[in-house]
Amino acid sequence: MISEQPIVYVVDDDTRIREALCELLAAHGMRAMAFASLREYINSDKPDAPACMVLDIELSDAKALGLQCETMDGLHPPIVFLSGRANVSLSSRATPYGAVHFLTKPFNDRDLMNAIRAGISEHRKKRVGCPEVEALKRRYLRLTQREREVFDILISGLSSKQGAQLLGNSEVTFANHMRKVMQKMEASSIANLIQTAERLEIPYAHSRRPGLHASGPLQKGVVAVVDNDQRLLESLQDLLESEGYAVRTFPSAERLLANGVFALDLLITDISMPQMDGVTLRDVVYKLRPELPVFLMSGRHEYSAQGIPNCFRKPFDAKALLAAIDRALNVGVVEVRYEE
Hints:
This protein has 14 helices and 10 strands. It is α/β, with parallel strands linked by helices. The strands form 2 sheets. It has a 5-stranded parallel sheet with strand order 2-1-3-4-5. The protein starts with 6 loop residues before the first strand and ends in a 10-residue tail after the last helix.
């Protein structure tokens, strides 16, 4: 249900801070929803309204900044970061991604409320664009992380059976998620859902090539490839799919983070990318999924002298890359030292 009454999302693992912030917001006539963790926030149902988020960056600076990267597609409300320590580095890393403010605890209530109002005002302006597209964006934002993964599968043309196998669910569970996605997106059919994805410029996370998985269940893992070079993305997709892997391709780190990393088995990312580079992306992903193998790619030879693990120099040897992926997924060996 659409509401123009603003809401503030408070994310902090300290119960006393959450309660104090909610009381402060109530005293100023604002409604709030409080969460003890980022995962709890991401998986919650949220009202369709102008909003701002107040986020404790000490939950984990990489997780917080990784979440904030999702704001780049305009779907997420602005963020006011709170920190228990004055940290110029964290502040400088947060603000370029669109944070409306960075406050150090203990903070002045007036400064916090001014920052929140600025965030809500900014979010309200974002919602004023094309009414139809903005409505689609707001519906998409209401999806939980798991529902977004199901959304990706549905628009990619995979069957319910393949989707269930990909997510490690039963077909009944997948069908329940699918029903919730269709209801929240107000989609009458899969074709309608695909049209929505195209209008929101959401990339296909899975191959839509006919017959790719027609021979039976997926035998190998799900590999994500992140690179701003479209030709390399297509080349790696062809190579990996020919070996039986399910492949997701993304033109930027921000797109990957917005789509989520919890359904992946391995990540391959270019080092030199605008905005968030591959090394920073790897560090963010390791905070979210410490066990996820991450391979880096680079065309710059100086990285060889740095001894960066799991790094492949472009142009790389396809056989060496496939062998390394196989070892990482089946043996757990991921310490490859700069493969030529």
